[in-house]
Amino acid sequence: KECALCFFHASFYYEGTRLAINVRYELNKHIMVQAKYGMTHYLNRDVIGSALEAIDGSTKGDLYLQLRMKF
Predict the structure, then answer these.
(1) CA distances from 35 to 6, 18, 20, 21, 29 (A)
(2) What is the residue-level pLDDT of the chain in tens, covering all 71 positions?
């Protein structure tokens, strides 16, 4: 789950490291933008995932964006 008021911690089955950066910017009192970029680097994998979701490499990145509007 990825949302502004939720905490999420992924489980990993292999050895590696994960880095996540969160950014929050309030445009005005009604509009807020949040972004989270995460990068996972596996030390003992050459392919991440399987079948159609396979990534050829040892690094995986993800980006989440959220726009919140208050009325």
Answers:
(1) 14, 17, 10, 8, 18
(2) 456 655 566 666 788 898 989 999 999 999 999 999 989 999 988 998 888 989 999 999 989 999 999 99
